[in-house]
Design brief:
The protein has 542 residues and is an alpha/beta fold. It contains 18 helices and 17 strands. Helix 3 packs across helix 5. The N and C termini lie far apart (63 Å).
Length: 542
């Protein structure tokens, strides 16, 4: 028989709820209850109890908050982490909170809900069998941000709650968190600088702030926020530790072996604080031996302006050669938030490089593009779009070709059409990803009732729609396996099913396409290395 908790709430459906198991202790290890009622929705918390749990215990607790840019995400995230830590003796919880796509809220309300969740745990400690002075807040990305706010930022509390009960977490374990609202992030809150400061954890850090463990991939653009936090922590004498995963992007902790590696490191951190006992019990999968990354040499040309916009700049590394050399153009990711929303500047960058062929010793017939996530999508769009060269233009740069010799991309989207993505991931909210909403300036909750111009835009910016039989070869590389479970929109938007859809179409047209998902070549055989793929289609010897 399945048993669940029922929240007992006052007639005014606001504020924190009382746990429904007060008179009926849970008999199973995982239970769900409502911890808060808001005007927009009731918020649930899934609680994982350790074996042998009893109400009179005083166990440490941890609460996880899902990621999703304050706009998406579900309570299903962090289930493996919660299950493991419950197995290690903690009471582990996963808390829902309001997000923009479902409740129309801003990050401010997300922070309020996180603080309510911590307060609820502390308020009901005696019934949950937890120690109210040993509560850990954790989460990923935006979820890690609101977790950090519970421990560091003052104020930003929900009205009507008993603020005599602290909402402050005692420890933080944060997976690629947002830690400061700079100019780019301020757009999420209507450029409200006062609120931005109020919910920027780094700005409120003190010597007495709770011990903190940060996780980032070195290819995550948010890493610099973590480094800023660590520098401030060092200056204050506050305890903070930083774990970095070489070459890994945002959200790396969701996939093996990094899920297990980060969890083992979190275990060690919590053991050092007396929250756990003994060594980690998790099995970390074997991973390929990684060669230490070389520090890049400085560019030959830095911040070269190639267009009218202030951000139309590029760095150029010139190869030493007596003959014209091929060029690989790297385009950054960032969900279109950290860069311009148009691909037009990238077209001009290709043309600009060709216009410099003689001066920079470039072979104009051998130019390729690479990038990750949004940078991958732009690279594919460049590879498949018709040539935009205008031989009659007064601008000599615009007379150059925009075509590529090949493309090598990582965790890329092959379509940005929300209708395509909805079909690719039925019953998931991947198509409502915040980056897509910003890109199209559209309410994706009303996907079937948008103006025709929006649908035309969806189709125009989607690389797969421009594919024709004369297009160049492509190598698609994904960190996730082909059967990766889509537990949050971050996994979905970087899923290899995007690559599978493109490969099927390229195979039909007879265009070479290599697809690698979690180190496995689709179709069998040895996965090609990106450098070997580039050499092959640049016509270079191995």
């Amino acid at each position: 028989m399945r048993c669940c908790w029922v929240a007992i709430v006052a007639p005014v459906l606001l504020g924190l709820a009382e746990p429904g198991f007060a008179q009926d202790p849970p008999q199973a290890n995982v239970k769900t209850t409502t911890y808060k009622k808001t005007k927009q929705a009731a918020l649930d918390m899934v609680v994982h109890f350790p074996s042998g749990w009893k109400e009179s215990d005083r166990r440490p607790a941890i609460v996880f908050f899902f990621g999703g840019g304050w706009e998406n995400g579900t309570i299903n995230a962090f289930e493996p982490q919660a299950t493991y830590l419950a197995g290690r003796g903690m009471v582990a919880a996963r808390a829902d909170y309001r997000v923009k796509s479902r409740q129309g809220v801003t990050p401010k309300e997300c922070v309020e809900d996180a603080k309510s969740a911590v307060r609820w745990l502390r308020q009901n400690a005696s019934m949950l069998g937890i120690d109210p002075e040993r509560i850990v807040a954790s989460g990923g990305s935006a979820g890690a941000h609101i977790a950090a706010c519970t421990a560091v930022t003052p104020g930003v509390e929900s009205e009507g709650e008993d603020t005599k009960v602290s909402s402050k977490a005692n420890v933080l374990v944060l997976f690629n968190p947002v830690l400061r609202f700079g100019p780019q992030m301020l757009q999420r809150i209507g450029n409200d600088e006062v609120l931005g400061r109020a919910i920027s954890p780094t700005l409120h850090l003190t010597k007495d702030s709770p011990p903190t463990l940060l996780f980032y991939g070195t290819d995550d653009w948010l890493l610099r926020q973590g480094e800023e936090f660590m520098q401030r922590s060092k200056e204050l004498g506050h305890r903070a530790e930083l774990f970095t995963a070489p070459g890994e992007p945002h959200g790396f902790f969701n996939r093996p072996p990094w899920r297990e590696k980060t969890l083992a490191r979190a275990d060690e951190f919590l053991e050092s604080l007396g929250y756990l006992k003994g060594k980690p019990t998790i099995n970390v999968p074997d991973s390929p031996q990684q060669t230490p990354r070389q520090q890049p040499s400085p560019p030959t040309q830095r911040d070269v302006k190639n267009g009218p916009h202030a951000r139309n700049v590029l760095d150029f590394w010139q190869a030493k050669s007596g003959r014209p050399t091929p060029v690989l153009v790297s385009i950054h990711g960032g969900g279109f938030l950290a860069g311009d929303k148009s691909v037009a500047p990238q077209l001009r960058a290709i043309q600009f490089l060709r216009s410099k062929a003689k001066d920079w010793n470039i072979d104009p017939k051998r130019i390729a593009a690479t990038g990750g996530s949004a940078g991958a999508g732009i690279s594919l769009w460049l590879a498949f779009h018709d040539d935009t060269a205008d031989p009659k233009s007064d601008d000599p740069v615009l007379r150059e070709s925009t075509r590529l010799a090949c493309a090598v991309v990582f965790d890329g989207q092959t379509s940005y059409d929300p209708r395509f993505i909805r079909k690719l991931f039925p019953d998931k909210d991947v198509y409502k990803h915040g980056a897509l909403r910003r890109l199209f300036d559209a309410d994706l909750n009303k996907l079937d009732d948008l103006p025709p111009a929006k649908y035309r835009l969806f189709e125009e910016v989607s690389p797969i729609n421009h594919l024709t039989k004369d297009d160049p070869p492509v190598l698609l590389v994904y960190n996730s396996p082909m059967d990766a479970e889509v537990t949050n929109v971050g996994i979905g938007i970087h899923h290899p099913l995007f690559g599978k859809a493109l490969k099927e179409k390229m195979d039909e047209l007879g265009i070479p396409c290599e697809l690698i998902a979690r180190n496995k070549r689709i179709g069998g055989g040895t996965p090609p290395r990106p450098v070997d793929f580039l050499k092959k289609y640049f016509g270079m010897s191995k």
